[in-house]
Amino acid sequence: MARSSKNQWDFGELFPAADTRTVWSVSDLTGRLKRSIEKEFGSLWVSGEISNWRLQSSGHAYFVLKDAGAQLNCVLFRGQAGVDRAGLRDGARVTVGGDMTVYEPRGTYQLRVSSLELEGIGALQAAFEKLKAKLSAEGLFDPARKRPIPRYPSRVAVVTSPTGAALQDVLHVAGRRFAGIEWILSPVRVQGTGSAAEIVDAIALLNRLSETHPLDVILITRGGGSLEDLWSFNEEAVARAIAVSRVPVISAVGHEIDFTIADFVADLRAATPSAAAELLTEGFVQASGRVEAARVRIRLRLQRQLGQSREAERVLTARLARVHPRRMLEQQGQRLDDLSLILARRLRFTSGPHRQALTSLARRLSAVRPAQALLRRQEVLLQLVGRLRTSARRRWMGLNERLAAKGSALRLLSPQQVLERGYSITLDAGTGQVVRAAGEVRPGQSITTRLASGSIQSTVTASESPGPAAG
Known about the structure:
Distance between the termini: 137 Å
Helix content: 40-55%
CATH superfamily of the largest domain: Succinyl-CoA synthetase domains
Number of domains: 3
CATH architecture of the largest domain: 3-Layer(aba) Sandwich
Order of helices and strands: EEHEEEEEHEHEHEHEHEHHHHEEE
């Protein structure tokens, strides 16, 4: 068979003139065509779009390679070396290499695939999966090697574009939640040729900086984009730079649905730049909430303790009022008044008969007018009156002396008088109860010591109870 012109073939040599009436069997004709096609085309490369992808249980894969005007059957046998099947699916653009042949049982020509290259997104995706599998096998994704992110970072370095929205999102969210973090920007390009090398250099530079000015976290971030836009973060050099970083690394690349190799290697992956800022400030936000809750609890506890102290003060004041020396003096004064009334009544009762006798005597004297007898009676009367007055005065003085003695005794028993002599009263600072024995307190307990003037707050370090008396 000879080619007469471009893309035109002369089949005269294959098929003798019809008038010879040579009849071919189907098998012979198909075999002849197979040998001719295999000899003529040999190995070649064809590009197109995969359609009707089928993977059989035998491990062989069958698909159709098509373009706008035609289609070509292809077969990829199991175990074909050099062909990565990752990313092969309907719609993928590929360039395949192989040998043209004819499948005789069906009489169809097909391409036996021996090499395959993905085009466009498919190629990038395949490269992504290949690198992911490689680094995973090396253990770079192992959770055991990843370090925890500090809960309260004070200095964070950001590796990103200085003009990108990601940087503004991080600073805005972090500033709104907690403004105490120091941010250090390491400006890099986040896409395009050379961007991956800039990211690698930035990570290395920040690790050197951390030796003199310690960094808590390195945040690698950028906004969303296509697979090609994010490809810098899928480079092996970037992944290994993150893996060897001595400073913990957070990767926040793209949107929630975007995953990069950097995300898998980093110590922590954040879904978005804003989410990374929330993760870095979450400890401060939670601590602020705990501080506020503690402030409320302390205020309520102080209010409760203040109320208890006021009630204890009221009870103590009432008790002191009942035993105050003034109260006892008032009671004794009232008793003195009662005794005075009793004395006056007794004086009136005692002097009544004498008055009557005096009156009777006066009548008798007035009748007989004996001057000398009258004088004697007057003397007797004056003596009786003097004795009565002396007795009353002595009784009165005795009562006054008893009252003064009782007042002195009450003053000596006054708590204030005891304090004036150098003694003190020890109270439980929490309950206000008087401490009477060392066994009633424990180390660390707060106590109040009242003195004659003022009081002392102290904490018990040790207490010793008296031992049993020696026999």
